[in-house]
Amino acid sequence: MSVFEPKSEEECAAIILEGDSFEIQGGGSRAVGRFDGNSRNILSTKGMSGIVDYEPAEMVMIAKAGTPVSEIEKALKKGGQRMIFEPLDYSGLLGNKSKSTIGGLIATNASGPRRFVAGAARDSFLGVRFVNGKGDIIKAGGRVMKNVTGLDLVKLLAGSWGTLAPMTEVTFKVVPQVETEATLVLLGLSDEKAAQAMAAAMATSCEITGASHFPVNVASSFKEFGDNSVTLLRLEGFKKSVKLRIENLQKALSSFGEQLILNDKQTKAIWADIRDVKPFADSTNTPVWRVSVAPMTGYKVVAELGAENAFYDWQGGLVWLRMDAAPEADKVRAAISKLGGGHATLVRASAEQRLSTEVFQPENEAVAAISKRIREQFDPMGKFYTGRMD
Amino acid sequence: MSTAKKSEAVSTGIQMPKPDPAILLKRDQIVAALKAIVPGEGVVDDPTAMKPFETDGFLAYRFMPLAVVLPETTEQVSAVLKYLSNEGVPIIPRGAGTSLSGGAIPQEDAVIVGLSRMIKILNKDYENRTLLVQSGATNLSISDAVSADGFFYAPDPSSQLACSIGGNIGMNSGGAHCLKYGVTTNNLLGVKMVLIDGTVVELGGEHLDAAGLDLLGVICGSEGQLGIVTEATVRLIAKPAGARPVMFGFDTSEYAGACVADIIGTGIVPVAIEFMDKPAIDICEAFAKAGYPMDVNALLIVEVEGSDEEMDDMLARIVTIAKRHKVKVVKESQSATEAALIWKGRKSAFGATGRIADYICMDGTVPLGQLPYVLKETARIVEEYGLRVVNVFHAGDGNMHPLILYNINDPIEAQKAEDCGMDLLKLCVDAGGCLTGEHGVGIEKRDLMLYQYTQEDLDQQMAVRAAFDPEWILNPSKVFPFEARGNQKPLVESA
Ligand SMILES: Cc1cc2nc3c(=O)[nH]c(=O)nc-3n(C[C@H](O)[C@H](O)[C@H](O)COP(=O)(O)OP(=O)(O)OC[C@H]3O[C@@H](n4cnc5c(N)ncnc54)[C@H](O)[C@@H]3O)c2cc1C
Questions:
Q1: Confidence class of residue A368 from pLDDT cuts 50, 70 and 90?
Q2: A99, B197, B384, B469: which has the highest count of C-beta atoms within 10 A?
Q3: Dihedral, A291, A297, A302, A305 alpha carbons, nearest 10
């Protein structure tokens, strides 16, 4: 079995036409999912690298799928811009040094704290070129912000974890950097109270762009807060506006107890840690779940499970949950379903645990049947490994 | 489109399939079966009563459907789909029928499944900032239901008083305020949908990023071809402290276009940037008395949000930029009434234009930097056809809406207008944009799809379509050009 690194989409198409049994890979930094250990050809996009077009005034970037995210971020920084969905970097959590690629980032729909107000990677993703299992080179979407021309295949590719087709080129929206950011911290709230405080904050006109909560034992991984649970609310924008809004927010939340304010630098640092799940980036393989539920349900799931190691993002709707030893998938998913539904992805676990667990939330029968038919339509001969998402 | 002078004139440029005689023969039997599923007033089969269903907002084409069924529950929708797909009868899902691309126009052998009786708001959940609603409810009824509590639903098509949330999902609709908050797909969290065989599925919900393949993403904007949405969970947003529209008048459209690109590029995200050219200003002012400046050739309406201090700050920045682009008039609204009038003028642009002439509305999107060029070319092309054009559109995201004026009762002019529209859309594609930013392909742009996509691109889309509806029962004559369908069903025989 071999590793293929095509340099162009034509070469990629030729490889697919001739060969069989491919595992599609970007930088390999997001090895989430089930890998059954059977040997397969690796079809890597790394050879297709480079920014194709970037005009900051157009607020769009086109890049080959194998372009390292670091290279993209460097170019964006120079242009005074950023990806609004705040790309989440799994490498710390998963303990690898691999360089993630922009294709991999979009394929995993890896969105950070701003997702709950500004959309996921899929919402910034405007256009794509890919090669299907028949070796056809296909484009979908385009480079403009609004586009309803035909079926939105772009969304299907986002979050397909390399199981539909290798993307060769991606086009995504970028936005200007903000002038400043700040965080209002509430100290000492219970998980339930924190959920209420975050909901109250979101009901104001303060335009929060991050709402996260750390129970005491997880908060202790951030030295600066002493022995307190912390609830963090981020504001971004022009200096004057942030100052005004943080004052308004302080007033609106005065009944929730003690408050602190983090400056621009502190804010940047702590939200990067939240984004990249730093509290659980502990160089172990203990199972970590990424749970998505309604904002007011997150703390209930944690309580139901009696979990000790959990923290919250997205106003409480995103729960990062570290288990002690076993993933206990059934228990986790039963709690979610009992409390109103959502999904759980086992983002970290040992290889054996991942093989014996349904890493991605199982779909109901009718939905699974559609997904299966869609996969067949992208890859009728079954050349791409899809077991990763099973 | 002109509601004022409805006409019986029918254009014929766009082909529709020949009705299946076997289905026409079974009509009585089909109607009886539908009546058994949806009792009472739920089945419309009288030709006079079916008249309003012959067309949608794309008035130049009309076809009498076989029957119209208006279910009241998801169970009824499911039974109807199961029955009709078994019988092989084409199904046209319909919300309010305001589509501007003919997305809801029926065909003679098809049954319209209309959602107009499913309009209930089922749950408001402010802590989770979501709302669960039946798909026939109007777009505006959602914002109205939560407004008093300080929330709103962001996508706001100009047709929001009439159009349904199901239709918005069908077309992935946008609106003036989408520049900041995104279009329907960015604000939709979940759906309950009936599949072609009657199976009911739920996708997403109050949580974010449904597990598995993003089916919600492909359903949004699928123009009624993948299933019928009966309920939607949408995202609510807290209302801003305040909002203020400001008008900027320019001597030329090019100045205005360049100003738009510059505002966006500096990191200011206004809620909306709307563009009007001179004919649009004249028409809207005459209709709404909004106080638009009359001595300019192009107008931008820029709306900012926030507290008063914030808005002052942001406006000062925008004014500085506008000055660089030779702005001639800057006019702030001084009161809520004035602000409402400014928006009333803009939102009535289509209706007001319809009072002076028939029009077709194009919907191509172009990269922002191309706006000045595309506006200039638009003027040139329309003039070549000897027609007139009104430009009023969502400039902040490059979504053009040239309204081509013509007389619907003059077949030659009607054909000219259609051809001219197609040329304008090709212009958008050539400029790096696309055929439609928010109105959808429908039948209107169907035959241009191969201008934007290759056969392989369309094959892939049609294959995904077939994964939901293998027999092509749902809205079968839309979106995909007949000549591109290859071995996909149905092998359409053109009439
Ligand atoms: C004056 C005017 C102004 C407009 N302004 C805007 C604007 O600013 N922005 C914009 O985006 N659009 C605009 N439109 C276009 C139109 O209003 C939108 O496309 C709207 O979303 C259509 O909604 P509807 O309920 O009328 O749907 P319909 O026209 O009935 O149907 C639209 C499509 O959706 C499908 N569909 C409808 N309901 C369902 C359902 N429940 N399940 C599955 N499929 C369904 C139909 O089959 C059809 O393909 C405007 C139209 C008019 C007439």
A1: very high
A2: B469
A3: -100
What residues 12-51 of chain A have any CB closer than 8 A to a CB of chain B?
none
A148: CA distance to ligand 1 center in Å?
12
The type of residue at A269 is: A
Nearest-atom index, ligand 1, CA of B166: 41
The CATH code of the domain at A278-355 is: 3.30.70
Whether B370 and B431 have beta carbons less than 8 Å apart is answered as: yes
pLDDT in tens, B462-474: 999 999 999 999 9
Q: How confident is the model at residue B261 (pLDDT cuts 50, 70, 90)?
A: confident
Say if the Cβ atoms of A58 and B266 lie within 8 Å: no
pLDDT tens readout for residues A123-147 = 999 999 999 999 999 999 999 999 9
Q: Tell how strand B228-235 and strand B188-194 pair up.
A: antiparallel
Fold: same for A3-176 and A278-355:
no
ipTM of the complex, rounded to two decimals = 0.96
Which residue, of B66, B81, B114, is where some domain finishes? B114
Helices (H) and strands (E) in chain A, counts: 15, 18
- The tokens describing A301, both together, are 């799931």
Residue nearest to atom 15 of ligand 1 (CA): B99
Residue B381 maps to a domain: yes
Regarding whether B28 and B108 lie in a shared domain, the answer is yes
| pLDDT of A365 | 94
* Domain of residue B312, CATH code: 3.30.70.2190
What is d(CA B315, CA B347) in angstroms, rounded to the nearest whole number? 22
Cβ-proximal residues to B316 (8 Å cutoff; 6+ apart), any chain: none
pTM flag (> 0.90): yes
Q: Do B390 and B332 fall within a single domain?
A: no
> How is residue B494 annotated by DSSP?
B
The A residues from 45 to 84 touching B (CB cutoff 8 Å) are 55-60, 80
Q: How far apart are CA B447 and CA B424, in angstroms?
A: 14
Over residues B133-152, the pLDDT tens digits come to 999 999 999 999 999 999 99
Q: Where are the extended beta strands (E) located within chain A?
A: 3-4, 22-25, 41-44, 51-55, 60-64, 81-82, 125-131, 137-141, 167-173, 175-176, 180-187, 208-214, 230-237, 259-262, 288-293, 309-313, 318-322, 342-348
Which of A43, A63, A114 shows the shortest CA–CA distance to A314?
A114
CA–CA separation, B6 vs B27, rounded Å? Answer: 29
Average pLDDT of chain A is 94
The Cα B87–Cα A109 span in angstroms is: 41
CATH fold label, A3-176: 3.30.465
User: Could you say which architecture CATH assigns to the domain A180-275?
Assistant: 2-Layer Sandwich (3.30)
Q: Which tokens is A281 given?
A: 């980036």
> Are A66 and A157 within 8 A, CB to CB?
no
Report CA dihedral (A285, A290, A296, A301) to the nearest 10 degrees: -50
**Which pair of tokens denotes residue A283?**
């160089």
Coil/strand/helix, residue A175? strand
Query: How confident is the model over A142-178, as pLDDT tens digits?
Result: 999 999 999 999 999 999 999 999 999 999 999 999 9
CA atoms within 13 A on the CB side of A4: 23
In this structure, what token pair is assigned to residue B54? 């012959």
The Cα–Cα gap between B295 and B311 comes to 26
Taking Cα atoms as reference points, which of B113, B75, B123, B114 lies closest to residue B96? B114
A373 HSE (CA, 13 A, CB side): 16
Domain segments of chain A as ranges: 3-176, 180-275, 278-355
